[in-house]
Structure formats: C-alpha cells, structure tokens
C-alpha cells in the first residue's frame, strides 16, 4: 500500500468517486516542511511550496492508494503538477503533488 497526501480536492467524496470509482481510506496528517502558496494553479486550485521554516507543517489527509490509483491521480492532476515523496508528521512517507 502506498500513501498520497492531499491538501485539496482529492479529499472530496465526489472527486474520489469520479477518479477512483470508490472512496479511499483517509485520515488526517501533516506534511513536514511545506506550506500553502499564495499562488493558485489555473487561478483557483491550491498550490504548496517547500518552506524555509523546517518546523512548517501543511495540514491535510493521507489517502491509501494502489499503484493504479496513483496513475489515475496523475491524470487528474495534469501536467501542471509533479508528484514527490515527502515525510509526514505520523512518520509515514506519502506522495504529494506540487507545481512544476
């Protein structure tokens, strides 16, 4: 099992059903060393950025995903985002989408 960290739309029921055709197991967590950006993708979608503050945390949720789920999520996020592996407050590591 892999983990995907979401700080935005991937936490929404309707989005999960549209992309993955099911609801994903999800629980709250925080990504370490990241913050919300003041910029938005396409003028409306949240973006995150690496923080200069090593104590910065980004609240969100971790989703339990399969490799096929990650492929579906990559398609959903599109070419403006890239997926990177980041540490979480829980001690797990998860994939996180950031702007390219």
Automatic annotation (TrEMBL):
Enzyme superclass (EC): transferase
Domain Gamma-glutamylcyclotransferase AIG2-like: 4-99
Gene Ontology MF annotations: acyltransferase activity
InterPro entries: AIG2-like_dom (IPR009288), GGCT-like (IPR013024), GGCT-like_sf (IPR036568)
UniProt entry keywords in alphabetical sequence: Acyltransferase, Transferase
EC number from the UniProt entry: 2.3.2.-
Alphabetical list of Pfam families matching this protein: GGACT (PF06094)
Name of the featured protein: Gamma-glutamylcyclotransferase family protein
Organism whose genome encodes this protein: Euzebyella saccharophila
